[in-house]
């Protein structure tokens, strides 16, 4: 697949989408097969697989298991270059542009580049921006970076513009998994004004209302992880929030 082309065409036609993030480390904590089939039933557009820290090496088995159940694209959302797996469809090549840790801006990318070049994976360069979530999340600790202030939309807008000018194809605003507060609507709206790339928003979206707010503010794709693990009833709420924006039928671009 070509994830960037899919998201750009969705954006042009005003279609919103959602991804279910499956964390390989939490696979023992919920019914994985059931979660995948419920996500498919509620028409999740993508599966994201990954996390900042993976301690149980079941990521590959997870991808294979998703593939057995559905054709829904599987996108790797890597924490580092150990998380590359050629059995997925796409990989978000994240450059953590909200931070000033050279290893996550370019260092890991140099190490991964030869493998990625011959992997056959659809590689999507992504301007990855962490936004302060009110408390430290795993990603802010592991990345050793300071997140963007949640109440400074102008700083977020300039950061996103820089990412776009550097040629990054997606803009991803993340409050971090399990964030106490999601990325504020004002900040999403400022970034929406600033860039033409598709915008991905995730972290702490644990209700249909929060999903709706993020989409209304300008998110094209929202990512839901923790919330679904903790509350199976969240999926229909998210699906309803997304489909409330998708009233006109659009051409499928896969
Ligand atoms: C985190 O954007 C993802 O990187 C999803 O976060 O697990 O809080 O939904 P949640």
From TrEMBL:
Cross-referenced Pfam families, in alphabetical order? PcrB (PF01884)
Give binding positions for Mg(2+): 23, 52
Substrates-to-products reaction catalysed = sn-glycerol 1-phosphate + (2E,6E,10E)-geranylgeranyl diphosphate = sn-3-O-(geranylgeranyl)glycerol 1-phosphate + diphosphate
Q: What is this protein called?
A: Geranylgeranylglyceryl phosphate synthase
- Residues spanning the membrane: none
- Assigned keywords, A-Z: Lipid biosynthesis, Lipid metabolism, Magnesium, Metal-binding, Phospholipid biosynthesis, Phospholipid metabolism, Transferase
Xref: InterPro entries: GGGP/HepGP_synthase_I (IPR039074), GGGP/HepGP_synthase_sf (IPR038597), GGGP_HepGP_synthase (IPR008205), GGGP_synth (IPR010946)
Name any cofactors this protein relies on: Mg(2+)
Please report the organism this UniProt entry assigns to the protein: Fibrella forsythiae
Q: Which EC number(s) are documented for this chain?
A: 2.5.1.41
The EC category is: transferase
- Known NCBIfam families for this protein? GGGP, GGGP-family, PRK04169.1-2
Question: Which branch of life, at top level?
Answer: Bacteria
Q: What does this protein do?
A: Prenyltransferase that catalyzes the transfer of the geranylgeranyl moiety of geranylgeranyl diphosphate (GGPP) to the C3 hydroxyl of sn-glycerol-1-phosphate (G1P).
- Positions binding sn-glycerol 1-phosphate in this chain are 172-178, 203-204, 225-226
């Amino acid at each position: 697949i070509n994830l960037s082309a899919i998201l750009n065409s969705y954006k042009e036609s005003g279609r919103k989408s959602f991804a279910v993030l499956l964390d390989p480390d939490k696979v023992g904590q919920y019914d994985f097969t059931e979660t995948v089939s419920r996500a498919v039933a509620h028409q999740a557009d993508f599966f994201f697989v990954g996390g900042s820290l993976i301690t149980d090496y079941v990521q590959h088995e997870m991808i294979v298991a998703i593939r057995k159940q559905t054709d829904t694209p599987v996108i790797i959302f890597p924490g580092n270059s150990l998380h590359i797996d050629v059995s997925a469809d796409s990989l978000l090549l994240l450059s953590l542009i909200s931070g000033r840790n050279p290893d996550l801006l370019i260092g890991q990318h140099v190490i991964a580049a030869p493998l990625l070049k011959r992997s056959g994976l659809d590689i999507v360069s992504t301007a990855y921006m962490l936004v302060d979530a009110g408390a430290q999340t795993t990603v802010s600790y592991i990345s050793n970076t300071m997140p963007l202030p949640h109440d400074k939309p102008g700083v977020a807008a300039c950061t996103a513009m820089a990412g776009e000018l550097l040629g990054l194809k997606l803009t991803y605003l993340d409050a971090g998994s399990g964030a106490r507060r999601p990325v504020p609507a004002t900040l999403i709206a400022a970034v929406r004004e600033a860039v033409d790339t598709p915008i991905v928003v995730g972290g702490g979206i644990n209700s249909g209302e929060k999903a709706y707010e993020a989409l209304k503010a300008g998110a094209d794709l929202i990512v839901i992880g923790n919330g679904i693990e903790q509350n199976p009833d969240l999926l229909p709420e998210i699906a309803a929030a997304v489909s409330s924006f998708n009233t006109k039928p659009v051409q499928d671009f896969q």
